[in-house]
Specification:
Blueprint lengths: L1 E8 L5 H15 L2 E7 L2 E8 L1 H11 L11 E4 L8 E5 L19 E3 L1 H8 L4 E5 L3 H4 L2 E3 L13 H8 L7 E5 L4 H12 L4 E5 L2 H8 L7 E3 L1 E2 L6 E2 L9 E2 L6 E2 L24 H19 L13
Parallel strand pairs: 2-5, 6-10, 7-9, 9-10
Antiparallel strand pairs: 1-3, 1-4, 2-3, 8-11, 12-13, 14-15
Protein name: tRNA uridine(34) hydroxylase
Catalytic activity: uridine(34) in tRNA + AH2 + O2 = 5-hydroxyuridine(34) in tRNA + A + H2O
Function: Catalyzes oxygen-dependent 5-hydroxyuridine (ho5U) modification at position 34 in tRNAs.
Length: 304
């Protein structure tokens, strides 16, 4: 089994037709996961047999605009997704700023081999464009977190903290590169002139740069059942709290407020009894399904 993630910013019309074609093809190939379609492009996180994933990429590349797609492929030992969702959205990654056009203008793409040199420059401000819960799992040396809960808050962070006259060089990164496409396009539109972004994101960096040369610290949050991966791109030490969706370290899971499948230190004091009862029942159903050697289909991690 493989997991493939990729995106492409292009002008995409006839969205209903694209939705129907992608849905039909993926159903025939047994592919699960999420495909987001918008007039600005496509964003996919999919799992399936290696041949099925290759077939879908070839299906897309019948359109020349998709020939340069560079999917990130990971091996998995169990299916991370139980459903297939093909959705038409206003944006393939939601910032809420309609005039931004990453297909036309973005920051300078920096390959992983050159990234260390860029972020080691004291004149460069390094920004992690991901959300705070992702940042706490792991990030690059000297990186600043925008302290966001979702990507819509990024423009507010820029307005309150960044100045084109003061911050002459900015380098940004995210998991796979897609958020940086919009973030860098937004900064350029705001008058920032020297803007860099990590090509292929953190996952490409971890795959390319050896651990002895890496400036990455911690693990990398991912949007599937692995929760986080280490520098070898293997499943890390974090687990997801079903109550609030926070990634939890082994230390956090030692808290008296942690109960697997129910609560953690971040949500324990905020859950109602009705919510606790529902989570307990869900955990009981999972345990029963496991005893029967069956799959329990529950909530999946959002890819957007």
């Amino acid at each position: 089994m493989k997991v493939a993630t990729f995106y492409k910013f292009i002008q995409l019309d006839n969205l209903e037709t694209w939705r129907d074609r992608c849905l039909k093809f993926c159903e025939q190939e047994g592919i699960k996961g999420t495909i987001l379609l918008a007039t600005e492009g496509i964003n996919c996180t999919l799992s399936g047999e290696a041949e099925s994933i290759d077939n879908f990429l070839q299906f897309l590349q019948q359109d020349d605009r998709f020939l340069d797609i560079e999917p990130k492929i990971s091996d998995i030992d169990q299916p991370p997704f139980h459903r297939l969702k093909v959705k038409i959205k206003s944006e393939i990654v939601t910032m809420g700023v309609n005039e931004i056009k990453p297909a036309i203008s973005t920051g300078k793409h920096i390959d992983p081999e050159t990234w260390n040199q860029i972020i080691s420059d004291p004149e460069v401000l390094v920004i992690d464009t991901r959300n705070q819960y992702e940042y706490k799992v792991g990030t690059f040396q000297n990186a600043v977190s925008p302290q966001t809960d979702n990507f819509r808050q990024f423009p507010e962070f820029v307005a309150e903290n960044l100045d084109p006259n003061k911050h002459k060089k900015i380098a940004m990164f995210c998991t796979g590169g897609i958020r940086c496409e919009k973030a860098s396009a937004y900064l350029i539109a705001q008058g920032f002139e020297e803007v860099y972004q990590l090509n292929g994101g953190i996952l490409n960096y971890l795959e390319t740069v050896s651990s002895d040369k890496s400036l990455w610290k911690g693990e990398c949050f991912v949007f599937d059942h692995r929760v986080a991966v280490n520098e070898e791109l293997e499943k890390g030490n974090y687990e997801l709290c079903y109550g609030c969706g926070q990634p939890l370290s082994p230390e956090e899971r030692q808290s008296e407020k942690y109960e697997a499948g129910v609560s953690c230190p971040y949500c324990y004091d905020h859950l109602t009894q009705q919510q606790r009862d529902r989570f307990w029942e869900r955990r009981r159903q999972q345990e029963l399904a496991k005893q029967r050697n069956q799959k329990h289909i529950g909530a999946e991690i959002s890819t957007n």
